[in-house]
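Quarterly update from the structural biology core.
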Amino acid sequence: MQALTSASDAVGGQSTGVSIGGSRENRDIMKLSLDATVLKQVETEVRNIKAEYRGRVSEESIEMAAHESLQRLADSRVPQFIPLFVGRFTRERLQELISRERDRVPAS
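Predicted structure, tokenized:
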């Protein structure tokens, strides 16, 4: 599994405490294509998702889902919508994960 790192690398070194993760190569790509405002909005969305799913999904799983969503959207032509879609796609992935887990647990 890839090491998760803070988005602060891509926002001029100012830490916001939320990880969006990925390899050094992926972070470098995101630095070039996303501005600090978009990244801060993504971090806020991830923080909200962590609060929403606390106790149901691990923070690591949330960060991985958000990172995958962000990677897919990093070259978007309209970066203002990236935080919205990262939130939507991440929530969809988490709901699928919860659903699969629920289906695995035998009914008592």
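The CA atoms of residues 18 and 44 lie 8 Å apart.
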